[in-house]
Amino acid sequence: MPKAELHVHHVGSAAPHTVAALAARHPDSPVPKDPQALAEYFTFRDFAHFIEVYISVVDLIRDPEDVRLLTYEVGRDLADRNVRYAELTVTPVTSTRRGIAPEAFLEAIEDARVTIERDRGLVLRWCFDIPGELGLPAAEETARMACELRPEGLVSFGLGGPEIGVGRAQFKPFFDRAIAEGLHSVPHAGESSDATSVREAVEALRAERIGHGIRVVDDPALMEELAERGIPLEICPTSNVATRSVPSFAGHPLPTIAAAGVPFSINSDDPPMFGTDIDREYLIAGELLGLDEAGLAELARSAVRQSFLDPAGRTRLVAEIDAHLAGWIR
Ligand SMILES: [Zn+2]
């Protein structure tokens, strides 16, 4: 099915073949060079361990050619799944702090963006996110790259990383600046912490969508507010189980969120790291919600409507989904 991906991370989308190629370019890295051993390396004990492994992969992105290669390969893997439009969450600071000049980093991702659209028709856009664990200086650097060097493909501003001990509200000045520059606000919240962080994201950071946000189930009044204001959650079922944010698929709060009328989209987060892909996430969501083909197509349409793609592009992509469904149920 043609579709849009709204919550997928740049480095976290590196498939084993891409990570192995990057590790081979940098033999001093602890990341295994062999795709088989990599699969084992990507089995997480808990959220903290996941972050540790993630950062060791981030450390493989050391020069502009690494960035370009990674971005193009991520785009290719998305296109292989018939993703037609993706908002890729990019964390420029983690690369610029490893010595890549901001301008060279932006040039590399933009080169890959233009090339993959030409080669495969995939429309890629960027969400620049603050790695929350690096605090306010990293927020300042991210905001500067987003607002002063603004690349053409940039549509939104985010906040990721561990949530516990990293309050959302402290990042308000940086979100205010990004919003004033016309960027959309899309912070992570309520993934590994609680519903309070979702409220902070909505009130202090003026979130237009929330990354994960699954802990809203603990605050019915907040769910009602998100439903009324039409603030969607970006749901990534396998990621939540893999990071132990939820105990199991059976215990996933998606059915409660859907029943409360909170808008949501289905996404893959860091697919190769979690042994999943966007198609599998749709099937899992379909099982959790008891959906047939028409229901799955409606999930795909929701993601398009909640995206920051221009109106003409949204209309086109919804029409592609409709055409696919017509052929599917014939
Ligand atoms: Zn995420």
UniProtKB/TrEMBL annotation:
User: Which InterPro entries would you find in this protein's record?
Assistant: A/AMP_deam_AS, A_deaminase_dom, Ado/ade_deaminase, Metal_Hydrolase
Q: Name one Pfam family in it.
A: A_deaminase
What is the native source organism of this protein?
A: Streptomyces alkaliphilus
Stated name of the protein: Adenosine deaminase
Which Gene Ontology biological process is one annotated for this entry?
purine ribonucleoside monophosphate biosynthetic process
Q: Which residues form the Adenosine deaminase domain?
A: 2-323
Q: What is its EC number?
A: 3.5.4.4
Q: Which PANTHER family match?
A: ADENINE DEAMINASE
Q: Does the keyword Ribosomal protein apply?
A: no
